[in-house]
């Protein structure tokens, strides 16, 4: 399942004197089974855009199409949009604030039950999802409030996985995670993608973009200013101090500048760099 964003505009607190235009004429096509990153400096409109994908926010102007759902100002109160949340799951930037049940398993089962699944099956699905995010039985009966920040985030992610949506949107899913938790989560997301899910990840982590995604969209002041591959992005953002290029790419670029014939497009991690250097050495 894909998403078509057509010329959308959105302003917060429209009537206030300090109204902020968060999105200004954004158009974007996300295809079925895409694995897309959305990047951009703080305040560029990423989280606002993410909330349009499942109609938590509705554009002031323009349309968002998700299959046969039409999200626009005219439809903003349509009951039909509720079903959309089952198809498009959004893990918020600060999901820990959304936990409210007395146990972890109930919290994860809550969303599933909301879509008409019986209590017993909802709990079963909650258990599977919790294990997927690396929280074992010992967490099931714990109070969400007593968990660490990263553990709370994992519970919130499990809550979305348990619903089994076709499109998964993650707003900064690895922020604050230790390296192993980040890797585990990204491997899980990659597996979901391989199983046919459409994945959208909002992140400031360019290493993540470089390692896992094939397409990146960049927002600047509420507008899409770049849409291409990670390597194209890293070339594009040279000189931006708010978006960093992964260190392996910086090293590769330096080596190329010094005359080493390596293809930057083939480099996504340290191993790729080593292989590229070997290949060059063998040719030289
Ligand atoms: N609830 C709100 N009320 C008023 N203005 C808001 C609200 N939420 C966001 N904004 C403003 O809208 C703009 C876009 O914010 P948004 O949260 O979409 O940015 P972002 O790209 O997700 O940033 P970050 O990287 O910090 O998460 C910013 O100028 C922000 O100040
Ligand atoms: Mg944000």
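-> sequence recovered:
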């Amino acid at each position: 399942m894909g998403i078509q964003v057509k010329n959308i505009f959105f302003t917060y607190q429209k009537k206030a004197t300090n109204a902020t235009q968060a999105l200004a004429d954004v158009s974007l096509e996300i295809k079925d089974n895409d694995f897309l990153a959305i990047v951009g400096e703080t305040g560029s409109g990423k989280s606002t855009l993410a909330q349009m994908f499942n109609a938590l926010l509705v554009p002031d102007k323009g349309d968002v199409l998700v299959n046969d759902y039409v999200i626009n100002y005219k439809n903003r109160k349509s009951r039909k949009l509720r079903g959309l949340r089952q198809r498009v799951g959004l893990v918020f930037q600060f999901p820990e604030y959304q936990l409210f049940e007395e146990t972890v398993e109930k919290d994860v089962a809550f969303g599933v039950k909301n879509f008409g699944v019986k209590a017993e099956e909802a709990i079963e699905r909650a258990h599977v999802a919790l294990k997927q995010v690396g929280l074992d039985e010992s967490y099931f009966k714990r109070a969400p409030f007593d968990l660490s920040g990263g553990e709370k985030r994992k519970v919130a992610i499990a809550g979305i996985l348990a619903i089994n949506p076709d499109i998964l949107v993650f707003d900064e899913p690895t922020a604050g995670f230790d390296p192993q938790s980040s890797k585990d989560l990204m491997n899980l997301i990659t597996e979901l993608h391989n199983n046919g899910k459409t994945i959208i990840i909002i992140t400031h982590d360019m290493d993540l973009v470089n390692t896992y995604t094939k397409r990146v969209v960049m927002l600047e002041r509420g507008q899409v200013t770049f849409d291409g591959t990670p390597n194209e992005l890293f070339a594009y953002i040279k000189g931006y101090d708010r978006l960093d290029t992964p260190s392996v790419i910086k090293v590769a670029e330096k080596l190329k500048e010094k005359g080493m014939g390596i293809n930057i497009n083939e480099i996504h991690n340290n191993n790729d760099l080593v292989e590229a250097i070997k290949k060059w050495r063998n040719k030289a």
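The chain is about 40% helix and 20% strand.
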